Automatic annotation (TrEMBL):
Cofactors (names): pyridoxal 5'-phosphate
Physiological role: Catalyzes the interconversion of L-alanine and D-alanine. May also act on other amino acids.
Gene that produces this protein: alr
UniProt organism field: Thermophilibacter provencensis
InterPro entries (alphabetical): Ala_racemase, Ala_racemase/Decarboxylase_C, Ala_racemase_C, Ala_racemase_N, Ala_racemase_pyridoxalP-BS, PLP-binding_barrel
Pathway(s): Amino-acid biosynthesis; D-alanine biosynthesis; D-alanine from L-alanine: step 1/1
EC number(s) stated in the UniProt entry for this protein: 5.1.1.1
Pfam families reported in the protein's UniProt record: Ala_racemase_C, Ala_racemase_N
Protein name: Alanine racemase
Catalytic residues as annotated in Swiss-Prot or TrEMBL: K39, Y266
Keywords of this entry: Isomerase, Pyridoxal phosphate
Domain of life: Bacteria
Catalytic activity: L-alanine = D-alanine
Chain residues that bind substrate: R137, M315
Length: 382
């Protein structure tokens, strides 16, 4: 199982994705909808097949980051509600109406332009009001929600389908800032209701919020990273069981026994220290999401055994060393051969390399690791 044209690929386990989606669905009450976040091509996993699997497993709505991501889902035939998690440039209001995409809205100018575009087609544009309760990213300031709604609500081309906020610290237990944001959000929702305005669906929980803060599931939860089998923080691990969905693999395209002292890769940053070592090449590089700062830091799996990556990672390829005489954990049972499968992320035998292990080496989070591998590698769905 590998693509015809290149010996490197991302494997997406749709069975694991379905089970993860069902696990989140079980956390939600009967009146709480699940909105699956499939931005950045479903965190690198492929938005269209993922959205179909999630819908079959109980999701009713979807969210993306950009208008183009929303249009791509519509062009693939996905007809379920789609929210854009930001307010895009005003010039794209016609595209939003044409493709029935709901933006997050927080300025009157954008909302009125959207209403005009919809009214011109005798349609009503649905939007969600984004409220900044303390993350200082996007949204209308919490004290201005009623005024904004009063400025735009006269428009026959507009309908408020939801009111949302986003937490900066939902992954921390007993956090004072989280409590503050939640209180401000509740106050904003109360203010809207007090003014006789329809809030639409009220929602604020992301993955860690959904797992750790069931008290604010409200009408809908926006679940992202957890669907892909990744924990947003250590504190969610004991609360929900998830399976990683992505594996990253390649095949050995060349292997030799270099001379002692030979250098490997740009800058020759690693040199062969002993006789009887192999150096093998795999066609995955930093343009595929294998960050260059992992050079000479990471392991790969071959035949269930860890091997050290060596030399600087190139744009499209990397090398690893097979040390037949090395410490036991790095010793393969046989020499590596042309065509052998190499695992960069995922399981092989009893060994596993996780997105968290790679994130730690890169000084980042698992979210970024999987997004990056989605950029260029062909995806294979299993
Ligand atoms: C990305 C995002 C989410 C999903 O976050 P996860 O931590 O991946 O669950 C939810 N809401 C907003 C506004 C987002 O930007």
């Amino acid at each position: 199982m590998s693509p015809a044209n290149r010996w490197s690929w991302v494997e997406v386990n749709l069975g694991a994705l379905r089970r993860n989606t069902q696990a989140f669905k079980r956390l939600l009450g009967r009146d709480t909808q699940m909105m699956c976040v499939v931005k950045a091509d479903a965190y690198g996993h492929g938005a269209v097949p993922c959205a179909k699997t999630m819908h079959a497993a109980g999701a009713s709505q979807f969210a993306v980051a950009t208008v183009d991501e929303g249009v791509a889902l519509r062009e693939a035939g996905i007809e379920w509600p789609i929210l854009i998690l930001s307010e895009p440039p005003v010039d794209c209001v016609h595209t939003l109406v044409e493709h029935n995409l709901m933006p997050a809205v927080y300025t009157a100018d954008f909302a009125l332009a959207l209403g005009e575009a919809a009214a011109a087609e005798n349609r009503v544009a649905r939007y969600h009001l984004a409220v900044d309760t303390g993350m200082t990213r996007i949204g209308v300031r919490r004290d201005d929600v009623v005024e904004l709604r009063r400025t735009i609500d006269f428009h026959r081309g507009l309908e408020c389908a939801g009111t949302l906020t986003h937490f900066a610290t939902a992954d921390v237990l007993d956090d004072w800032d989280f409590a503050l944001q939640l209180n401000r959000f509740k106050e904003a929702v109360e203010a809207l209701r007090g003014a006789g305005l329809d809030t639409g669906l009220v929602h604020c929980d992301n993955t860690p919020g959904t797992v750790l803060h069931p008290e604010c599931h409200f009408d809908m939860c926006r679940v992202g990273v957890g669907l892909y089998g990744l924990h947003p923080a250590e504190v969610t691990r004991p609360r929900i069981s998830l399976e990683p969905v992505m594996s990253v693999r390649g095949r050995v395209v060349r292997v030799i026994y270099p001379n002692v002292g030979d250098g490997v890769g740009y800058g020759l940053t690693w040199r062969v220290p002993r006789k009887n070592m192999q150096v093998a090449t795999v066609p995955i590089g930093y343009a595929d999401g294998l960050a260059r700062e992992l050079s000479n830091q990471m392991d790969v799996l071959v035949g269930g055994v860890r091997c050290r990556q060596v030399g600087n990672i190139c744009m499209d390829q990397f090398m690893f060393a097979v040390d037949v005489n090395s410490a036991r954990s790095y010793r393969p049972t046989r020499p590596v051969e042309y065509g052998d499968v190499v695992t960069i992320i995922g399981a092989d035998g009893d060994e596993r390399i996780t997105a968290e292990e790679m994130a730690e080496l890169r000084n980042t989070i698992n979210y970024e690791v999987v997004c990056d591998f989605g950029m260029r590698l062909e995806k294979i769905y299993t």
